[in-house]
């Protein structure tokens, strides 16, 4: 889009900005937020768009971000998640997502800032559930790809998705999430998109594994 500009300077990129959106691989989140931390101020929303857990610590991305920024900025940490296949987002196709923050007022301000004509945002205060739904669904999507690659059919895949959602919910509740979150966009919604679409990278990986290809 014409309003998008590219720069290699963090200082330039973050000058007078209202939100920092961290759409980076989850295993690089810590090094990226360390680079950004010195340029933050209390007026900025800090939005995590990565779906994963840090391998070494098992922390959610918002926890990793909180580790590396000024404690005064913690209330501005938000999470953006939902059934959002990137190829469709790039084509400006209609989509829905959730922006979550511990404070409902912060979530609503971020919602107002990030809403677009093609991306409708809902709010949630269950940061734990929203992040875990986005991270854990990747495991089920990998399994769904394997099931498709082996030709097990839609009955088996439906069973995998629904039983997978049960397991995700049980783990999420144990870790402090609201069980209702997993029946919404960032749980069931994300599962449906990621487990059934050829645009899903995790589903694609599962299919390719059945062809004998390695993770390398």
UniProtKB/TrEMBL annotation:
The keyword Oxidoreductase applies. Keywords: Oxidoreductase. Residues 126-216 form the Glycerol-3-phosphate dehydrogenase NAD-dependent C-terminal domain. Pfam families: NAD_Gly3P_dh_C, NAD_Gly3P_dh_N. GO terms for biological process: carbohydrate metabolic process; glycerol-3-phosphate catabolic process. InterPro entries: 6-PGluconate_DH-like_C_sf, 6PGD_dom2, G3P_DH_NAD-dep, G3P_DH_NAD-dep_C, G3P_DH_NAD-dep_N, NAD(P)-bd_dom_sf. GO terms for cellular component: cytosol. One of its GO terms (molecular function) is glycerol-3-phosphate dehydrogenase [NAD(P)+] activity. The keyword Manganese does not apply. Residues 1-106 form the Glycerol-3-phosphate dehydrogenase NAD-dependent N-terminal domain. NCBIfam families: PRK00094.1-2, PRK00094.1-4. Belongs to the NAD-dependent glycerol-3-phosphate dehydrogenase family. This is Glycerol-3-phosphate dehydrogenase NAD-dependent C-terminal domain-containing protein. It comes from marine sediment metagenome.
